[in-house]
Design a protein that fits this description.
oxidoreductase, seven-stranded mixed sheet, globular, single chain, binds nicotinamide-adenine-dinucleotide, Aldehyde_DH_NAD(P), 2 domains
Length: 468
Amino acid sequence: MSDLDSKQIERMSAVFQAQKAAFEGERHRAYKDRIRDIDAIAALTVKHAEAIKDAAASDFGVRSRCETQLSEIAYMASAAKHTRRHLNSWMQKKKVAVPGNLKPGNAYIRREPKGVVGIISPWNYPFQLAFSPILAALAAGCRVMLKPSEFTPAMSDLMKSMLAEEFDENHVAVILGGPAVGEAFTKLPYDHLFYTGSTHVGRIVSKAAAENLTPVTLELGGKSPVIMADDFPAEKAGETLAFGKFLNAGQTCIAPDYVLTPKGKSRTVAESTIARVQKAYPDWATDEDYTAVVSDKHYERLNSMIEEARSAGAEILQAEGSDPGNARKIAPTVVLNPPEDSRLMQEEIFGPVLPILEHDGLDDAMKRVNAKDRPLALYVYAKSKKTARSVLEGTISGGAVVNNTMLHYSVEDLPFGGVGASGSGAYHGEYGFETFTHARSVFETPVWHPSRLIQPPYGKIFDMITKT
Ligand code: NAD
């Protein structure tokens, strides 16, 4: 059954038109008003912190409150602080050099709000992945329509009521619904469309945006590999791999998806990962800090991927725990040497399952990574900086971390985004501000300017100026 009726489409269009009109009335939202908007986002995040944790717990069944605090609430508070601190300098016009034959004059770039922007967000970090692009769009002076995920209804309702406390609907509006609503949402002629979600839906969104020539940012997924070099102490790998993989039960776009270790080291890495995760969650089944899988559909998909690898002869290592009952929890799992053609090695896993395979040297590892779609993140484990750099040079990914996982996400001055099938465009910090603004080129000349000398009738002065 469709989750959309004609009334909803009309309402969505009406909100869009109201935002358009409001934007026309305030094309250059003043600095002080943008600061108010940023402060409102920060204040809402802090004020509703407990409600955000409750909503995430209700949507996932079990969602670690500490992980919600870390990855949704604290992240947003610090992103808002960063934006507030730097907005003034981001908004300044940027002067550029004027070539000698065009002098005198002033050339500069004005960063201007694009207008009404659409944001579509996923379920895995349902608060942060909606609020973070909203923050960037508001800092840029835009109006925002958000379509959050249908898989996290409690969080979507909460965000709608939170935002209504501080923003009129003609400034920030939330449209609730599933794929059909999403499809109608993407048909509106936004000034920018910002999509976070799967590569499959990213293609659909991109086509819809193209109909209106709407510029689009695609924050997608993919299989983010870990490449380990010979000089890395394999017994230490689990310390960081376990955190990267089992945070939010692996439902993280930049979670390490699979690991390629040197020959003879996969078992050590697997055992150190299981040992670390066992220490983190002595009984993962009852531990409130070990998150559940978001829906029955996702739960069944992950279990069937593990079973497929088991039937194909791969060795499965799992952390010990009691029976999770109906909690939709999957034991932290490591799979040794699954076949390359198994779903675990073909699809983005997006759950608490980590395949570990061996490579035949770094050239082989890079070749195998490069044979797949370009990943969102790539992790290099190498003691030697030279080795790490050679892996960076031999591969392409949206972002990368050396000797750790995921931490690049929290460095606000780094652009966050994918490349190829893992996305295009970026945000965070100034990159988010740039995404939602248009770089308008301005060249100011005096009333009489020597450029008149290159106008017809062409003659000696023209020849002199244009001589190559
Ligand atoms: P999804 O693509 O299923 O859904 C994302 C959003 O798109 C939801 O709001 C959904 O309702 C909407 N949608 C679904 N069909 C649509 C359509 N036809 N037209 C318009 N909108 C539609 O993704 P998901 O399952 O929520 O998220 C998981 C994926 O997102 C993973 O691949 C993950 O790697 C990726 N992801 C990427 C990032 C990133 O920052 N790059 C962050 C989180 C998740």
